[in-house]
Write a structure and sequence with these properties.
globular; 8 helices; Glycerol-3-phosphate (1)-acyltransferase; disordered C terminus; disordered N terminus; single chain
């Protein structure tokens, strides 16, 4: 097995040659990323951060191993995909945990991105599994972007579709391995997500990340894929066990949401109750 890599040596020395090749020419997807700082702020604040605060009572985070830095890059963050909210979570982690230390890229289906092109301002680009040639262009585009600079990372959902959280075995498409290989090597960082209701109106989100593993350019793609699948399975299973056994040591509160109806009701009853007590204590007229 590959060692758990945490340092800049995770990238093969061959990356220099790969960088030169990709910088000279790599194909574009149907809709490429179009980073725009002002556009990112508008979309992130209005369409991502605010809805997350409204929909989730709390977001909990646990990171196994050190948090990757640009010195460890390029980086591929790959996640299980069980909810519509998963893409929002990737962008939350980009802003609240990595604090935009990396330039972010994220895949979205071409059909969806044509409807919501403003997501390209955040580094989102299109991918379509319906056409193998189009999909290959998107993978090569992602690999080229990663090969050019260490301070770039890619967020992706290699299951390729919404999948029930308890389904096993996890089945990952080979794109995650192909991108790492074509980029000349990368650090792969598994991210497990779980959504749960715990006695409140709104659900809570639990995130367990890492540890990272090096994928060298010389490693065959099938080995990279097998190890990535095993690491993501371990992360998802450990998160499940942490939740079912209520082992929350090491988790920190990443975000607290807006009050739900239960909190509003508690506050209302607390405000009314003293008045009733005072009224009942008055002597009869």
């Amino acid at each position: 097995m590959l060692p758990q890599a945490q340092d800049a040596n995770c990238v093969s020395p061959k990356i220099v040659d790969v960088k030169m090749r990709h910088m000279a020419d790599y194909p574009l997807p149907a809709i490429p990323a179009n980073h725009n700082r002002l556009g990112e702020e508008l979309v992130a604040r209005l369409l991502i951060e605010w809805p997350l605060r409204q929909q989730f009572s709390r977001v909990w985070l646990k990171i196994e191993g050190p948090l990757p830095t640009p010195a460890d890059g390029p980086l591929i963050c790959y996640m299980n995909h069980s909810s519509w909210w998963d893409g929002y979570v990737a962008l939350l982690l980009h802003r609240a945990v990595f604090r935009r230390s990396f330039e972010a890229y994220l895949m979205m289906s071409e059909a969806q991105l044509r409807r919501f092109r403003f997501f390209t301002w955040l580094g989102v680009f299109s991918v379509s599994r319906a056409d193998k040639q189009t999909a290959a262009r998107s993978l090569a585009y992602a690999a080229g972007k990663l090969a050019e600079r260490r301070d770039r990372y890619l967020w992706m959902f290699p299951e390729g579709k919404l999948t029930p959280i308890e389904r096993r075995p996890l089945q990952l498409y080979p794109g995650v391995a192909r991108i790492a290989h074509q980029a000349g090597g990368a650090l792969l960082w598994p991210v497990a997500l779980r959504y749960e209701f715990r006695g409140e109106e709104k659900p809570e989100l639990f995130i367990r990340c890492g540890p990272g593993r090096a994928a060298a350019a010389a490693t065959p793609e099938h080995e990279i894929l097998d190890r990535a699948t095993a690491d993501l399975t371990t992360a998802v299973d450990c998160l499940r066990d942490d939740y079912t056994e209520q082992r929350f040591a090491g988790y920190r509160l990443l975000q607290r949401g807006a009050p739900g109806i239960n909190h509003i009701g508690d506050a209302l009853f607390a405000a009314i109750r003293p008045r009733r007590t005072d009224r009942s204590a008055r002597p009869p007229r």
